[in-house]
Amino acid sequence: MTQKIIFDKKNILIVGGAGFIGSHLGDELVVKNKVICLDNFLTGTEHNIAHLLQNPNFKFINHNIVEAINLEKQPDLKEFRIEFQGLQEIYFLASPTSPRDYSRYPIETLLANSVGLRNALDLAVKYKSQFLYVSGSAVYGQVEDKKKVKEDYVGRVDQLGPRACYEEAKRFGESLVNNYRLKYNIDAKIVRVFNCYGPRMRLGDGRMIPEIIELALKNKEIVIYGEKKSAGSYFYISDLIKALIKMMSSGEIGPLNLASEWQNSFEEVAQKIIQLTGSQAKVKYESTGGLMAPQLLGDITQAKERLGWFPIVLLDEGLKKTIDYLSAQQGILDLN
Q1: What is the CATH number of the domain that holds 193?
Q2: Residue 219: how many CA atoms within 13 Å on its side-chain side?
Q3: pLDDT, tens digit, for every residue of 157-197?
Q4: CA dist., res. 315 & res. 261, Å (int)
Q5: Are 36 and 163 within 8 A, CB to CB?
Q6: Would residue 180 show up in a list of annotated catalytic residues for this protein?
Q7: Where in the sequence is the domain holding 67, given as residue range(s)?
Q8: pLDDT of residue 293
Q9: In this structure, is residue 281 part of a structural domain?
Q10: Are 149 and 138 in contact (CB under 8 A)?
């Protein structure tokens, strides 16, 4: 049972709130709530939340969640009256998620989804908060066939492989959340996010869409790991934010897949980006390996039936918005 609201707005904590997903979530939640953004800028950036810092209902705390925190002793949160109202909701997004990030920060990735997650769950126990753990498709490991994966699928994971720090971290994280829910009777939920894209993704983070956009903007050769006809599914950030908020307000505990129902070949995605950027870049396809795993396709039947959710932003529309943002970001980097 969640703690009642004493004052006019909920207190909501976003752990990893300065990252790609967390900052967009903060934009939406701060409209009707008081939002605490906790981040240490390992992979998030101050630029993502700069426009929110003057909002009295938004507070930023520079902190690594691997270290326990007493929010009631944070002077910047005095107006939120946490000692009286506590926290109503906690969203956990504190983890490197791109291949280059978690290869650069393997220990940090493991600790964020274990020690850091435990610290956040302890806050949920203390304040009887609703809790949402944002996991990923990596928990499915290697899928034996190319069918869309359902939530009950269990794949193979090489715990010593190049992607293990992320795959095993998310698997452990899900188990920790589930056992906290069972032991402490908290409303703890799990979603598994597949390929989401949009503004505030970082150039050079290694994920497919920003990587293609960056190379297209520079008219450099685009290297794609996979075959021309290999299929992927991509959904826009605004659709994901709606899903996370729906999940938090629902009676569901998950895990639920959050993905796009539409499939696009790698060739189609690359050509759309080349056309939208007016690029002269050529495309080269190479076999997958190492950090780059074959893309999984997620079955979202459960999300549609239980949340009434499905993505609505078309790929062309989402890509245009993403290109506009990353093009401006590239311009800023070129000036520095």
Answers
A1: 3.40.50.720
A2: 3
A3: 889 888 899 999 999 999 999 999 999 999 999 999 999 99
A4: 11
A5: no
A6: no
A7: 11-198+234-260+297-313
A8: 55
A9: no
A10: no
200, two tokens: 């505030």
Q: CA-to-CA distance for 220 and 239, rounded, in angstroms?
A: 31
Within a domain: 238: yes
pLDDT tens figures, 95-131: 988 888 878 999 999 999 999 999 999 999 999 999 9
Quick: pLDDT tens for 8-55. 899 999 999 999 999 999 999 999 999 999 999 999 999 999 999 999
pLDDT in tens, 234-267: 999 999 999 999 999 999 999 999 999 988 989 9
| Euclidean distance between CA atoms 51 and 61, whole angstroms | 15
How many domains is the chain built from? 1
What angle in degrees, to the nearest 10, is found between the helix axes of 315-335 and 208-217? 60
Who contacts 170 (Cβ-Cβ below 8 Å, separation ≥6)? Answer: 95, 113, 135, 136, 138, 139
Omega within 30 of 0 (cis) for the link into 255: yes
Q: Is residue 88 part of a domain?
A: yes
- pTM for this model (two decimals): 0.93
**One of 105, 133, 140, 166 is an active-site residue; which one?**
166
Residues 6+ apart with CB under 8 A from 160: none
pLDDT confidence band for 291 (50 / 70 / 90): very low
> Dihedral (C-alpha) 213, 219, 222, 228: value to the nearest 10 degrees?
90
On the question of pLDDT at 336 being above 60, the answer is no
Q: Identify whether the C-beta of residue 290 lies closer than 8 Å to the C-beta of residue 245.
A: no
Read off the tokens for 272.
Answer: 């759309």
- The answer as to whether 39 is a domain residue is yes
d(CA 180, CA 193): 21
Give the C-alpha separation, 283 to 252, whole Å. 43
Cα separation of 301 and 322, whole Å?
A: 27
CA separation for the pair 26, 28 (Å, rounded): 5
Bridge partners, residue 131, by sequence: 90, 188
Q: How far apart are CA 22 and CA 119, in angstroms?
A: 18
Residue positions counted in the chain: 336
Question: Helices (DSSP H) in the chain: which residue ranges?
Answer: 20-29, 82-85, 99-104, 106-111, 117-127, 164-184, 208-217, 237-249, 266-277, 301-307, 315-335
